[in-house]
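[User]
Protein folding is very new to me. Any chance you could explain this protein sequence and its structure tokens? I have pasted everything here:
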Amino acid sequence: MNTYVVDASVAIKWFMLEIHSEAALRLRKPTYRLQVPALFLLECGNFICKKLRRGEISVAESDFMINKLRTAKLEWHPDEPLFPSAFAIANKTGRSLYDGLYLSLAIAIDGQMVTADLKFYESLKTGPYANRLLWVEDIPQSTNN
């Protein structure tokens, strides 16, 4: 499968050198189709705001990250059509509606949701959504650069 829904826990690693950053950067290869719900930018922005407030990054770095995310080669999907399914997933799994939205999009496009949120991944990796989840370290190595 070359179509992936990228959650914010993965995308933020494109800019921050931290655990799993190298794996997350594999998604930036042109062989992958990256999909995101509209909520994606808001959620990434929240991560970036927290890092800015903590003094981990500068204003210039935060502006750079936001601009790169806004212009990244991503296929954006409106949240509203995904909401009923996302709400049902969130209630069924006990996970957040935000996580349900990413997973709902993965189902809708017949792709996989890539996450670096270990708690989320561990809670769903053996259930009915297991085939729609991909741990960030399990992103296949692309043969194209």
Remarks:
- The helical segments are 8-11, 21-25, 39-53, 59-71, 83-93, 97-108, 118-124.
- Residues 39-53 form the longest helix (15 residues).
- Residues 3-40+72-138 form a domain with the Rossmann fold fold (CATH 3.40.50.1010).
